[in-house]
Every structure is written in C-alpha cells, then in structure tokens.
Amino acid sequence: MPRPAATNDARRLDHQRGGADRSELSRTANASRSGPRARLTQNDPPQPRERGRLASRPAGGPPKRERCRMNEDTGADYLGPWELSECVDGGGVGVVETSRCSALAEGDVVTSFNWPWQTHAVMMGSSLQKVDSQMVDGHLSYFLGPVGATGLTALLGVREKGHVTKGANQTMVVSGAAGACGSLAGQIGRLDGCARVVGICGSNEKCRALVEDLGFTAAINYRSEDVSARLKEICPDGIDVYFDNVGGSISEAIIEQMNRGGHVILCGQISQYNKDVPYPPPLSDKTQEILQSRSITREKFMALSYMSKSEAALFELSQLVKSAQIKVLETVVNGIENMGVAFCSMMKGGNIGKQIVKISD
C-alpha cells in the first residue's frame, strides 16, 4: 500500500514533482479513435519540501469514469481531462510516510480522488482524507470500493433514486452487475427489500459469482443469451428498479420491460464511453416514449450531490461488510507497470468486482 506525506498548503501540487516510477499520458485519445497510450518514467523518490506536503506510496483502483478523462470534454462537471505528458491520477489509498502537515502524521491511512499513478508522491494535506483502517478490518483497498466512493454510489443511488420499499414485491435489474458498483448495488437492493434481483454481465463465471457468492436471484450472460427473452422468463411481473451501469442496447431492452412508475438509476454508461456523444447519451425515440408513457423516472445520479449523508452511509457500509451482509469481490493486479494493462482489461470486462492495482505492501 502507498505511503504519502502532507501539507497545509491549499494550492494544487504540480504532478511533475512526482517521483520514482510514474505513468504519464503520452498521447491524446478522443472517443473511438486510436486509443490512449501511457509511458512509465523513472525519477528519484520525492521528498516533501514545503510545509504541509507529503510523500506517498499508493495502491490504486482505476474506476471506469477515468475513461471519460481521455476526452477533451469529460461530460462531468467534477472531472477534468487528463493533460498530455502529465502524470495520470485517479482514486488511491495509502499510508503517510513523511508529513509536514499538522493534520496528518506518519502512519496515517489516507485516500484521495486524485492520487497520482506513481510509486511515491508528494501531495497536499488538503487533498487527502484521513480514514480509520478499523472500518475495513485492515483491508485498505476496501476504501476504494465498498467503504469508499464506489460503495457510496451504490448505496445512495439505490436509496435516493431507486425507491425500494420492503414488502412491495419489487424486481430490480442491475447491468454491469459483476463490476465494482453493480455488485454492491444488487446486494443493497436485496437487503433493502427487493423480492428479486437480476444481474446482467458478460461471462458465465461472473453469472456464477453473482448468484452463488452475492445472493442475486438470477444472472444473464449478455454475450451468449437473449437478454430480452431471459428477462421475460426471470421477471414475469416486469421490472420496477433498474440500476444502469452500461447504457446502449442492453439498457433499452431492460427499459422496454419496466413497469409503470418504475425508476432508472443512471449510474454509468460504459458501453458509450468510446463514442463521441453527450452524457447521458440520447435514447431511441421508442425508449423515450416508453419512459414518458409509463412515468418512469431516469435521472443522472452522482454521490457527490449527497455528501451530507456520506458519513452515515460509510459507517453503514462498513458494518454491512464487517458482518458479511455485503460480500466484496476484487480483481487485484500487482505493480504500477501493470496499471495500463489493468485499466484496459477493466474496460473490456476482465475484472470481477473492484479492479485494484497494488503498488506496495
């Protein structure tokens, strides 16, 4: 796991001060063009120079949203595009190694949404959040998944936009169900009272994991099965809640079978990230008519809009994970040199659960 150092300085630290091995974006990649390329460079390990800055050694969990940062327009107000020749960054967790920040001490565990993809980093204390490792029983990578932003997105998405009611015999469908967020959202839907939770994913192995390990009612392999036909078979009473991680034709097939007054939780649209379209991508006229005629809500969701509820939500997620009411799946790759490989594999569906890149112990 990484170790950082911290500062009270409120200015953003120039990534060029990064150290040791680091990953830089060496070529722009607009949607559906030749694709991104990164290079691994080596520098001397950095030392905190100005007051409040820190040196760190991280572990990262590159989320799919980082694909949007390879476009000039990310489609999200809270995300800026990566700049050419700058160190790539994303979610990370680590341990403070050296600190000149009064709020952080050596040995503190910290997380950040903008952790440089490098073995050591100098970061500002204001950009880091101190966390308690007891919340995850020492599994620090869980701060990147179920007890972090991913867990918040799943829990608050279901609670704020899903309108799940115990005893209402509701059916929930989750696309991208074997990914970091989808695997949590389905379990939360079940715990909150959905009578039936169906996951859609891309392999038989993932289907087995959803049903046998995570307690989904059923799972559909969209690569080998007819999604529409299987949904009619598994969800004879229609669909009430849809947690949408993928968009595209799969989402339109699901919406077609939704009940009046249903709710689409618009979390992600990974099938559209390589296309030059706005977010959220436009729907077909037929699907738009279904939403309107059946009074189905479909709203973009961001956990950042509900940060006043984050502390209580993270505590609840911690308790659910510790008690094994929520099971955690991870795909772990070792070494910063494999960061790009892990990212591309994730974008192709190679991960089950949260994709983690472990950079140090």
From TrEMBL:
<dbReference type="Pfam" id="PF00107">
    <property type="entry name" value="ADH_zinc_N"/>
</dbReference>
<dbReference type="Pfam" id="PF16884">
    <property type="entry name" value="ADH_N_2"/>
</dbReference>
<dbReference type="InterPro" id="IPR041694">
    <property type="entry name" value="ADH_N_2"/>
</dbReference>
<dbReference type="GO" id="GO:0006693">
    <property type="term" value="P:prostaglandin metabolic process"/>
</dbReference>
<dbReference type="InterPro" id="IPR036291">
    <property type="entry name" value="NAD(P)-bd_dom_sf"/>
</dbReference>
<dbReference type="GO" id="GO:0047522">
    <property type="term" value="F:15-oxoprostaglandin 13-reductase [NAD(P)+] activity"/>
</dbReference>
<protein>
    <recommendedName>
        <fullName>15-oxoprostaglandin 13-reductase</fullName>
        <ecNumber>1.3.1.48</ecNumber>
    </recommendedName>
</protein>
<dbReference type="InterPro" id="IPR013149">
    <property type="entry name" value="ADH-like_C"/>
</dbReference>
<feature type="compositionally biased region" description="Basic and acidic residues">
    <location>
        <begin position="9"/>
        <end position="25"/>
    </location>
</feature>
<feature type="domain" description="Enoyl reductase (ER)">
    <location>
        <begin position="31"/>
        <end position="357"/>
    </location>
</feature>
<dbReference type="InterPro" id="IPR011032">
    <property type="entry name" value="GroES-like_sf"/>
</dbReference>
<comment type="similarity">
    <text>Belongs to the NADP-dependent oxidoreductase L4BD family.</text>
</comment>
<dbReference type="InterPro" id="IPR020843">
    <property type="entry name" value="ER"/>
</dbReference>
<keyword id="KW-0560">Oxidoreductase</keyword>
<dbReference type="InterPro" id="IPR045010">
    <property type="entry name" value="MDR_fam"/>
</dbReference>
<feature type="region of interest" description="Disordered">
    <location>
        <begin position="1"/>
        <end position="71"/>
    </location>
</feature>
